[in-house]
Write a structure and sequence with these properties.
By secondary structure, the chain is an alpha/beta fold. The chain folds into four domains: 153 residues, Alpha-D-Glucose-1,6-Bisphosphate, subunit A, domain 3 (Alpha-D-Glucose-1,6-Bisphosphate, Chain A, domain 3, 3-Layer(aba) Sandwich); 98 residues, 3-Layer(aba) Sandwich (Alpha-D-Glucose-1,6-Bisphosphate, Chain A, domain 3), CATH 3.40.120; 110 residues, Alpha-D-Glucose-1,6-Bisphosphate, subunit A, domain 3 (Alpha-D-Glucose-1,6-Bisphosphate, Chain A, domain 3, 3-Layer(aba) Sandwich), CATH 3.40.120; 74 residues, Alpha-D-phosphohexomutase, C-terminal domain (TATA-Binding Protein, 2-Layer Sandwich). Helix content is 36%, strand content 21%. The strands form five sheets. The protein has a seven-stranded mixed beta sheet, sandwiched between helices. A hairpin with an 8-residue loop joins β5 and β6. The protein is globular. It starts with a strand and ends with a helix.
Length: 449
């Protein structure tokens, strides 16, 4: 049987293995078994995004948790980083988020945080997975047991908002015109109110979730609307979050998209100038644009490379003592103040950088030149070792042509049946042609259809 955990929790189509109510009950039991405290009543915090299947999975998780004598605390709809923060501050044994992040509504997933608000290590995931797949490993469950109780956390959003407000100087948003795309997801309630409370003039949209419209032609993956709104309103900045609120893609006042790598570069400079960039380090991933490494080198900042996935970025940050890291997709981790990627928090730090530098975002972004990059996803029927599927000739041919002018990365998605082909090069036409060349080879060898 394949591993349940991917690069970001357990994910798949709702009501299909492994995202079924039956498996969710087992996940609840397993998490309670692994994290429960022996000598006192334990509690597990649960939050979710706006997907219609979230209720089904929430109740199933609660059933499993309570069957182990552990209490379940329901925070309702709240961004993933909000659950991470509250887990670390409320004495919960663990936190669980029901979300498939930027995926369509028919997908869902289960992410788990330990009591410190950090995502789990591979070792801890394997321990939980063993319990899920072999319930004989469950400890503390017997025929006579005090079952857990379910509580509603009515002030979860309020507490999380207070943390976010306290992360920036008072009045730093006063008079700013901000456009916000909430992706019909977990930020739909908290984000517009938060930025308005901090003094900004806010235009928010995609704030009417119906369970099925999360991420639908909106959010961090679909920035056309936020670009249009920024131009129409003459806004200073546009912020586009993903479905569970842990990613941010920004748009400058001219309507140009600011990538995650550019946000990293901008924030790195500001933090270094203020003496806040501990160990003079920034952690990025193998998917980061070549331009980020060049920009950091020109600023005299060391760049450490991690595997794809924000938890791998976090692990490398802890290992090296870095306080800033992230992914081009928009996951940013500011370890001096937070334990996980947070779209709203990142937006606040980016605006703080604009204020600190007294420059518009269109000027700040020039600190990094983005190399043309093309990404093609190929649906695959299985995930054999890429060295054994016969695509290396195509890869080597492209690498030989590019030389030092670009690079190639071929990897499987950690959450979906996809092979991702990424090529960077000197021009968009060349880059696209090379990427298609490798993608065609992957399609021929292991593609579907």
């Amino acid at each position: 049987m394949n591993r349940l955990f991917g690069t970001d929790g357990i994910r798949g189509m709702a009501n299909e293995y492994p995202i079924t109510s039956e498996i969710a009950v087992k996940i609840g039991r397993a998490v309670a078994s692994v994290f429960k405290k022996n000598k006192k009543k334990s509690r597990i915090l649960i939050g979710k995004d706006t997907r219609i299947s979230g209720y089904m999975l929430e109740y199933a998780l609660v059933s499993g948790i309570c069957s182990m004598g552990v209490d379940a605390y329901l925070a309702g709809i709240l961004p993933t980083p909000g659950i991470a923060y509250l887990t670390s501050k409320t004495g919960a044994a663990a936190g669980i988020v029901i979300s498939a992040s930027h995926n369509p509504y028919h997908d869902n997933g289960i992410k788990i945080f330990n009591n410190d608000g950090y995502k789990l290590s591979d070792k801890k995931e394997m321990e939980i997975e063993q319990v899920i797949l072999d319930e004989k490993c469950i400890t503390g469950c017997g025929s006579i047991i005090d079952t857990g109780i379910v509580y509603t956390v009515n002030d979860a959003e309020k507490k999380y908002a207070a943390f976010l407000k306290g992360s920036v100087p008072k009045g730093c948003l006063k008079g700013m015109n901000i456009v916000i795309d909430c992706s019909n997801g977990a930020t739909f309630s908290i984000a517009p109110e938060l930025f308005a409370d901090l003094g900004a003039n806010v235009e928010s949209f995609f704030i009417d979730p119906d369970g099925k419209n999360i991420n639908k032609n909106c959010g961090s993956q679909h920035t056309d609307t936020v670009i249009k709104k920024v131009k129409e309103k003459g806004a200073d900045i546009g912020l586009a979050f993903d479905g569970d609120g842990d990613r941010l893609i920004a748009v400058d006042e001219k309507g140009d998209v600011i990538t995650g790598d550019q946000i990293l570069a901008v924030c790195a400079k500001t933090m270094k100038d203020k003496g806040l960039l501990k160990n003079n380090l920034v952690v990025s991933t193998v998917m980061s644009n070549m331009g980020l490494g060049i920009a950091l080198k020109e600023m005299g900042i060391k760049n450490i490379i991690a595997d794809v996935g924000d938890r791998y970025v976090l692990e490398k940050m802890i290992e090296t003592g870095a306080v800033l890291g992230g992914e081009d997709s928009g996951h940013m981790i500011f370890l001096d103040r937070h334990t996980t990627g947070d779209g709203i928090f990142t937006g606040l730090r980016l605006i703080e950088a604009m204020k600190s530098e007294s420059k518009p975002l269109s000027d700040l972004r020039r600190i990094m030149t983005v190399f043309p990059q093309v990404l093609i996803n190929v649906k695959v029927k299985s995930k054999p070792d890429l060295n054994d599927v016969g695509i290396q000739d195509a890869v080597r041919s492209v690498e030989a042509d590019l030389g030092e002018k670009g690079r190639v990365l071929v990897r499987y998605s950690g959450t979906r049946p996809l092979c991702r082909i990424m090529v960077e090069g000197p021009t968009i036409d060349e880059t696209g042609r090379y990427c298609r060349q490798i993608a065609d080879s992957v399609q021929e060898k292991i593609g579907i259809g």
